[in-house]
Amino acid sequence: MSDQKSPVDWERLEAKPEFRALLSKKARFIISATIFFMSYYLALPILVGYFPELMKMKVWGEVNIAYVFALSQFFMAWIMAFVYVRAATGWDKSAASVISDQR
Fold this sequence. Notes:
Number of domains: 1
Order of helices and strands: HHHEEH
Largest sheet: 2 strands, antiparallel
């Protein structure tokens, strides 16, 4: 007798509504997050190009709005990574539930 788990029946799993709902939920999050992040990332060169006087405004010493916005992109990347990891943890739990219901 072996301690190995039985293999997953992927065809049966793929047909389950719970599995399809999980994939849809993941796709909605990933697409939305990607659109948001790319928009945020591309906003800096667009703003600098179209509104240079606004972006040159000093906020603290020689630091201007463009520098603050550029720095905020580093924070946004970490925030997005944190949000993604939290969401992925939930997806992993849902996936384990869907797979365990199959066996």
